[in-house]
Specification:
With 520 residues, the protein is α/β, with parallel strands linked by helices. The protein folds into two domains: 67 residues, no CATH class; 367 residues, Alkaline Phosphatase, subunit A (3-Layer(aba) Sandwich), CATH 3.40.720. The chain has 15 helices and 17 strands. The strands form five sheets. Strands 1, 4, 5, 6, 7, 8, 11, 12 and 15 form a nine-stranded mixed β-sheet that branches. Strand 2 and strand 3 form a beta hairpin. Helix 2 crosses helix 4, helix 10 runs antiparallel to helix 11 and helix 13 runs parallel beside helix 14. It is globular, with a radius of gyration of 26 Å.
């Protein structure tokens, strides 16, 4: 076969391991070794596929064909890149195994929640000094006002817990967990409108199309549970729909589509089209997937498209989810004490309280990344009534989640993040009438909180000026938050990259610094 007398197996192994034949010396041990090497070859990227030549075909893609051939010959199950992630192992010790992100869409006012400013109350109705605003851009909704009057918060604040963290009285349950959370008062972003601002937080870019946070986590670290998606999304059904939420906020972008977030809905069918149609038995479904899998493998061998692998992985995941999802979403086994902890809405599927409880159940089942979205925080007019209602819907359940995770030992390796896409202005938008005022979008400074693994508890990070308008110390950019989250998960944010259309992309783009003062 060859000039130097190599056997067919060695020849095939040398040239792309396309093992299409073997002789009597070809033992199973040799084939297993070839299969292991082939199975652990990374899926080709978009750019690799675009520059494919015959040399690349023989030297690179043959690995995939060899893997499929050997898997069939030896009866070995096909390996999945999503099981351990593209990194194989974290870059360093990971304090965080799982993340719950409680995203408060609309922009909660920091001035009514975590950043008390007495000076605004003293100057209520008076013009905000122009020196405070400087040359900063304002939104078109208030930028043309002849007067920008200071709006003092109606809410009173209490120094809570042993830490003495100042928290608004409209968050009484959050006050009780003051010693468990780290409040960041110095967040800032670049976007001033909702859609780009939410997109920025969720994907690290204001421009749609990039992979989301959870997708990056799934791609890099893989799944901890073979039977559930690594990234699950829950959207409150009892929230005011002031701003739309698009599925691209939990998209995989240009990453393989198996890493996109899977939305769980309330009702009898948490995941659409998951159950078998009437008359289709589990056995028939299994047979169909086996036949479809063979067709997909044949197509993958000819087209070399990594999305075909993702399609296979998603179909198999959906089959396993037919049993795992009903178990995870069934709250009937929860105690009355647990329902009382999360609040009266906890028994109503799809509410924020029920979703917080469900998030805990998903974390118990080792789902890597769970993101909740609760809309309605966009108070341009009635701040008093609007934010009071929002806090009533979310405060108890948010605090209950921390308490519940801690007593079950899950907070030791889980990170919880609470916050929106920006804050609100120190001045009133529109006409002010007594205690009736509104606030416009404010990206320059706002507050979020974190709790759990790797985070210092009972501290406040960052300082804003006496008007709550500018950051004086400890600024934390969106990229910094992402870099810190990845760091806690054992990932160097500069090394988790994906090459697409000639450029290496990452969640933190070309920026991001770890916020070391908040790390335990």
């Amino acid at each position: 076969m060859t000039n130097d007398g190599e056997s067919e197996v060695k020849f095939a192994e040398k040239f792309g391991r396309m093992v299409l034949w073997f002789d009597e010396q070809g033992t199973q041990e040799v084939l297993q070794e070839v299969l292991h090497d082939a199975m652990n070859t990374k899926t080709p990227t978009y750019d690799q596929l675009m520059r494919h030549t015959r040399r690349h075909f023989l030297g690179s893609t043959g690995l995939g064909l060899g893997a499929m051939a050997m898997s069939h010959l030896l009866g070995t199950g096909q390996a999945s890149a999503s099981s351990s992630g593209i990194l194989g192992a974290p870059h360093h010790f990971a304090k965080v195994k799982r993340v719950i992100y409680l995203f408060q869409a609309g922009g909660p006012s920091h001035l009514e929640t975590f950043d008390d400013k007495p000076l605004l109350r003293e100057g209520h109705g008076k013009a905000l000094p122009k020196s405070v605003i400087g040359n900063q851009r304002l939104s078109t909704m208030s930028g043309n006002q002849s007067l920008l009057p200071m709006a003092g918060s109606f809410a009173k604040f209490t120094k809570s817990g042993a830490s003495g963290t100042s928290i608004s009285d409209i968050l009484p349950h959050t006050q009780k967990i003051a010693d468990e959370i780290c409040v960041i008062r110095s967040m800032h972003t670049e976007a001033i409108n909702h859609d780009p601002a939410i997109t920025f937080f969720c994907s690290g870019s204001q421009i749609p199309g990039r992979p989301s946070m959870g997708a990056w986590a799934s791609y890099g670290l893989g799944s901890l549970n073979h039977n559930l998606p690594a990234f699950i999304v829950l959207v409150s059904k009892n929230a005011r729909r002031d701003q739309p939420l698009y599925t691209r906020l939990w998209s995989s972008g240009f990453l393989p589509s198996e890493h996109q977030g899977v939305q769980f809905r309330s009702g009898k069918e948490p995941v659409l089209y998951l159950t078998n149609p009437e008359g289709v038995s589990p056995h028939a479904r299994r047979s169909m997937l086996d036949a479809l899998g063979k067709l997909n493998l044949d197509q993958a061998a000819h087209e070399l498209d990594p999305e075909i692998d993702a399609r296979i992985a998603q179909a198999e995941m959906a089959f396993r989810m037919q049993t795992s999802v009903p178990d995870a979403t069934d709250l009937s086994g929860e105690s009355e004490e647990t329902f009382a902890l999360y609040g009266p809405d906890a028994k109503t599927p799809g509410t924020y309280a029920a979703n917080c409880l469900l998030a805990r159940r998903l974390i118990e089942r080792d789902v890597r990344f769970v993101q909740l979205f609760h809309q309605g925080w966009d108070q341009h007019g009635d701040v008093v009534g609007g934010i009071s209602q929002q806090c009533k819907q979310t405060d108890q359940a948010s605090a209950a989640l921390i308490i519940d995770l801690k007593r079950r030992g899950l907070l030791d390796d889980t990170l919880v993040v609470w916050g929106g896409e920006f804050g609100r202005t120190a001045y009133c938008q529109g006409k002010m009438s007594g205690n009736h005022y509104g606030r416009d979008h404010h990206p320059r400074c706002f507050s979020i909180w974190l709790a759990g693994a790797g985070i210092k508890s009972g501290i406040t990070h960052g300082l804003t000026d006496e008007y709550g308008y500018n950051i004086l110390d400890g600024a934390v950019h969106v990229h910094d938050l992402h870099a810190t989250m990845l760091h806690l998960m054992g990932v160097d944010h500069e090394k988790l990259v994906y090459k697409f259309q000639g450029r290496y992309f990452r969640l933190t783009d070309i920026a991001g610094h770890i916020v070391k003062p908040i790390l335990a």
